[in-house]
Design brief:
- The chain is an alpha/beta fold.
- It has helices spanning 49-54, 81-95, 108-119, 141-147, 162-172, 188-200, 208-212, 241-248, 265-268, 270-283, and strands at residues 10-14, 20-26, 30-35, 57-62, 101-106, 124-130, 174-175, 184-185, 226-231, 252-258.
- The protein has a single domain (10-283), classed as Rossmann fold.
- It is 33% helix and 19% strand.
- Helix 5 (162-172) crosses helix 6.
């Protein structure tokens, strides 16, 4: 099955804890580290990586713990934000980046990027956050209720057929036109890749949101220049949470809402979103 229109060379890093991290890199120059969201993969950045390379940046995109082709521990207790951060941080160390770098994170990857900036302020030059997931309060009341407790029976998810995931992605990837504005519709290759990423993700990742409430994320310490982007029709995270975050970031340089897009504006309309990222990189 062809998962994407872009083909990158995969690389592996083996961490001191014995876990494998799968990633890809493209280009040479100042480093930009890209981090995907929940139940996704490094293919989130298929449209942005080539632009970074062409503009003289070195882009690095990771499959987080339990996602893509990275390690998938069998014990659900090994899945937490802290475990994900441990692998993420160790992987960055393994890259031996020579100078401060920019972090670009979507959803859970956005929260992880802010956490890394909190703990390693001297290493991070700037941040781009796309629909960042930083609090359980961003979820609907029903999902908050679910993720307030540790889930112990998630293995059935691994037996869910790909075609069922594909059906759910097809249903959830379309929004009706808003007035005279264009329709939000994920491209076919993105819908195919999204379903594939859900299918191959470890069932233990569904315990990760539960552990988010135990993470000490201090927004006042995210002092790096920051770009905040979000889709106004996000049905996963409350769209009102992004303006709230905007008010809490001390060094926010720019913010923009894509009113037609949902949770993945970087995949919904990359031709509109990527220029914001590229301009921010030039001026940050």
């Amino acid at each position: 099955m062809s998962a994407t229109t872009n083909h990158f060379q995969y690389q592996q890093a083996f961490l001191s804890n014995g876990r494998k991290v799968n990633y890809t890199s493209q280009g040479e120059g100042e480093a930009v580290v890209l981090t995907h969201g929940f139940a996704a993969s490094l293919h989130d950045w298929d449209d942005l990586l080539p632009e970074l390379s062409a503009a003289g940046y070195a882009g690095y995109a990771i499959d987080l713990l339990g996602h893509g082709e990275s390690a998938k521990p069998n014990n659900f207790r090994e899945y937490s934000v802290e475990a994900m951060y441990e692998d993420f941080s160790a992987w960055i160390d393994s890259l031996n980046l020579a100078s401060p770098f920019t972090l670009v994170g979507h959803s859970l990857g956005g929260g992880l990027s802010m956490l890394y900036a909190n703990r390693n302020p001297h290493k991070v030059k700037a941040l781009t956050l796309i629909n960042p997931f930083y609090s359980l309060k961003q979820l609907s009341f029903a999902l908050q209720t679910v993720f307030q407790h540790q889930l112990v029976k998630t293995s059935w998810i691994e037996h869910t057929p790909y075609l069922l995931f594909r059906f759910m992605v097809e249903i959830g990837s379309y929004n009706a036109p808003i007035g005279a504005q264009k329709t939000h519709r994920l491209p076919q290759h993105i819908r195919r890749q999204t379903a594939l990423d859900y299918k191959r993700a470890a069932s233990g990742i569904y315990n990760i949101p539960y552990t988010l409430q135990n993470v000490d994320l201090d927004f006042s310490r995210v002092t790096q220049p920051t770009l905040l982007l979000w889709g106004g029709h996000d049905s996963t995270l409350s769209p009102s949470s992004f303006p709230q975050l905007k008010a809490m970031l001390p060094n926010l340089k720019a913010a923009h809402e894509f009113p037609v897009c949902g949770h993945t504006p970087h995949q919904c309309h990359p031709a509109e979103l990527n220029p914001y990222v590229m301009e921010f990189l030039r001026t940050a």
